[in-house]
Every structure is written in structure tokens, then in C-alpha cells.
Inverse folding.
């Protein structure tokens, strides 16, 4: 009930992206304007990168973070929530697992850091395309339904998802935009690619790669630390790793991707890096999260990136 589109409550329960697109075609025109923005390349300074299965919430006056964002979203969706009064912004990278909990927690993290009745929460959605399996469409409708089931009014401003984010190249459907960034201080959102996706990129990828299908908060301005929480592998993929490390690029794409024909160029290299990491750290609670403690990073004066403060 509290999903607001152009000032009116949207009560329809959409069965597919096509249903949504038929009722709200104006989002296509709005997204066309967004796509005219140049793709910005973001470096390390002031960056908070959010990877698949994560979300982060940043206050407008947080001196640690200037821009946050994510990319490599094919069938995945990028969710951005921002409070117009406080400027508190939350960004998540959803892959279809733990969607309801992730959206609820993002909304709660924004409202808890904003004064009541001081503004409204606006929602921007990106990602997905018209994939053959309908994975993107299901994720679009799932996110919309979760938002509709919340008590907090959420104003949908951007819906660059699934069919609206679809292009055809050489007869194949692909995402038009794979990643976005947002300037925390003023809320400017733009297409983006990122030169740095750390810290601990492989550790963070291994969590989702091995079946830990839970959305986790990677950063919050309340504590101002980037925290990678302890986890165990949920799927025993160790016996298969040597095969995939010796496999061809095509075999890796066909077996380990939801959309083999439109993965970014570094997909295979990143996948092999993650597999090597898992093989090296077969028991992450022993070798990575000693004593059950998270891996903690902070910003240090004069240092461009994140600095480990693990004991």
C-alpha cells in the first residue's frame, strides 16, 4: 500500500515486469534521460563499494564516504533509498536471496537516522534485463511487493529495471547499465564503473558464491566502520574447484553465471580469484574470522582507501 508513484498510492500487485511497464510506461522516458548521463569512473578516494548481497547506509555528513555504489548487476537489482530531509542514503545489491529482509532493513536504517515528518523516502531501482529465464522480472516484482508491504510511504522515482534497462546487441538481450554511483552529500545518481571494489573483494564474493544467501549490512554511519561479518560456507564446492580452475572461460560462464553472454569482461578472472581464495581458506572461521570476530576497516587521515583495524 505505501508505494507512491506520481503522488498516488500504487495498490496493484504486479505479476510480472510487463504488468508494471504497461501501467507505468513513463518510467521508460525518465530512464532514457538518466542513461544520457556519462558513465563516471570512480577511484578509491571517498568510495564505499557495495557488492552482491550487501547494503550500506550513509549519513549526509559522514566524512568517510563521498560516493557509494555498485556494479556488475546483470539479473541483479540495485536499490537506492534516500531520505529527502536528512539526506541519509542506503544502497543495496540484490540477487534474489533474502529480498524481503534486505529491503526492510534498508528502510529501517534510513528511518532510524531521520527525524519523523522531516521529509520523504525516495526509491531508485536499477538493473536486470529481459533474460530468457525471467529472473530479472521476478526480482523486480519481488522488490516492488516488499516495498508495498511496508508501513513507511516510499516514493518511486526511478525504475530502470528489466525491460526498461534492456538493449539488444547482436540479437541478444543485455543490460543497458550495469552499475550506478550516488554522491552522498547531494543525492546525485549516475551510471558508474569502479576501479576499486574492496577491501577484501574475494572474501565478500565467497560469501554469496558458497550459498550464504543473506543480505548483510557492510557499513553504517552510526559506527563508521566497514565490517565484514563472519560466515561459514553453506555449500561444499571444494571438490569442484580444481575442475573450474582448469576449465575454459566458456565453461565457467555457462556453469557459474545466470547470464553468460553479458557478464563483464573480468567475470572469469574474478570467479577464478574467488575459487582460489576458497581453496586457500577452506575454514573461514579459522583462518579469516579468528575468534568469531568480523574483519573491520576504517578510514585513516591521509590514507586513500580503507585501513584494517583487526586485532
Amino acid at each position: 500500500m505505501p508505494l507512491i508513484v506520481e503522488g498516488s498510492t500504487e495498490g496493484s500487485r504486479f505479476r510480472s515486469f510487463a504488468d508494471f511497464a504497461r501501467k507505468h510506461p513513463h518510467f521508460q522516458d525518465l530512464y532514457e534521460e538518466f542513461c544520457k548521463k556519462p558513465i563516471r569512473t570512480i577511484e578509491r578516494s571517498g568510495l564505499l563499494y557495495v557488492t552482491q548481497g550487501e547494503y550500506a547506509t550513509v549519513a549526509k555528513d559522514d566524512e568517510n564516504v563521498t560516493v557509494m555504489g555498485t556494479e556488475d548487476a546483470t539479473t541483479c537489482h540495485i536499490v537506492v533509498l534516500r531520505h529527502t530531509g536528512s539526506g541519509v542514503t542506503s544502497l543495496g545489491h540484490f540477487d534474489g536471496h533474502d529480498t524481503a529482509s534486505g529491503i526492510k532493513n534498508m528502510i529501517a536504517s534510513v528511518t532510524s537516522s531521520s527525524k519523523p515528518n522531516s521529509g520523504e523516502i525516495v526509491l531508485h531501482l536499477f538493473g536486470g534485463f529481459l533474460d530468457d529465464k525471467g529472473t530479472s522480472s521476478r526480482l523486480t516484482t519481488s522488490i516492488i511487493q516488499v516495498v508495498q508491504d511496508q508501513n513507511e510511504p516510499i516514493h518511486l522515482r526511478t525504475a530502470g529495471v528489466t525491460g526498461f534497462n534492456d538493449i539488444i546487441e547482436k540479437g541478444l538481450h543485455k543490460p543497458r547499465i550495469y552499475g550506478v554511483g550516488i554522491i552522498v552529500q547531494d543525492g546525485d545518481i549516475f551510471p558508474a564503473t569502479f576501479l576499486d571494489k574492496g577491501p577484501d573483494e574475494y572474501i565478500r564474493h565467497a560469501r554469496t558464491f558458497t550459498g550464504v544467501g543473506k543480505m548483510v549490512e557492510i557499513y553504517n554511519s552510526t559506527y563508521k566502520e566497514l565490517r565484514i561479518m563472519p560466515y561459514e560456507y553453506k555449500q561444499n564446492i571444494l571438490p569442484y574447484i580444481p575442475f573450474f580452475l582448469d576449465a575454459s572461460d566458456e565453461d565457467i560462464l555457462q556453469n557459474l553465471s545466470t547470464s553468460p553472454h553479458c557478464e563483464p569482461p573480468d567475470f572469469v578472472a574474478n570467479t577464478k580469484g574467488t575459487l582460489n581464495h576458497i581453496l586457500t581458506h577452506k575454514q573461514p572461521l579459522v583462518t579469516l574470522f579468528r575468534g568469531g570476530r568480523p574483519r573491520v576497516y576504517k578510514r585513516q587521515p591521509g590514507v586513500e582507501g580503507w585501513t584494517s583495524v583487526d586485532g
About this structure: Residues 54 and 170 are 33 Å apart (CA to CA). The chain has one domain: 3-224. The chain has a mean pLDDT of 94.
